[in-house]
Amino acid sequence: MLDNPLTYFIFGLLFAWIGSYFYSAWHNRRKLTWLAKWLEPSLHILGSKISSRWHGTDRLDILIGEGRGMMRDGAIVLGVQSRRLFNALISTLRGGRDNMNILVSLQNMPASAYQFEVFGAKEPVPRTVALNMAAWDIEDYSRAPYRVAFQDETGRDNAFRLITLLLDLGLDIRRVSVRPVLPQLFFTFNMGRLPQSEAGELLRIVRGVAEEASQPAKTNLRPPRSGNKSSKTSKKEIDKLNRQFPPAMTQPVNDPKLSRNGHHKEE
Fold this sequence. Notes:
The longest helix is centred in the first third of the chain and has 35 residues, at 5-39. The radius of gyration is 21 Å and the shape is globular. Strands 1-2-3-4-9-8-5-7-6 form a nine-stranded antiparallel sheet. The relative contact order is 0.17. By secondary structure, it is α+β, with helices and mostly antiparallel strands. Residues 224-235 and 240-267 have low confidence and may be disordered. 33% of the residues lie in helices and 24% in strands. The protein has six helices and nine strands.
């Protein structure tokens, strides 16, 4: 029996499968702990009441109460992809990645002039935009593969400036949203690599966006554009993009399985 190569293969696969459980727990807990310590000294920028909660070894929630300035409260959800052999394979095929989500509730609802969505050039249009396409313009960000949806020139300018700031920090943006529904601010970053910048720089940007989004609106509506198909996404293009992605990718971020497999589910 032991002379059969298939036997060695099965035993090797079984050993790798069992070993991956121990490796996944060790690696993921270590990475989440590093990220938590990276954030810890600067969390006071967002709020004065901080607590945390572990969900297994693949997710850590940092809860922020008594928010500063125009922030009511918030949370930072750190999720890592499972390194267990078969779980990792399935998660990778589904687009799962290590990620950090920052969710902020504001004292005031952002006016439409400050609302925007930043998302990957090849990702589906966020549902908040797709449900009312007539109210939104969509424009490419020339320096990186992102698109920006906005209702007003103010939102467009804020979004472009924000992308530049976040890229300068070396962060891999997956989505940024300033919207009227809770949480009003929503940032998602891929965390395949550990950040090299200071956490305080990122959290100050988040607080700055919160303060800006809470200001009274100064409407500067963008005039309709005609014949510019390169910068405006048509409904036909949106339908085509959405068909390329499973429905799960458009679900709310606070799904309980958010980071069990590292797959981010967007609203």
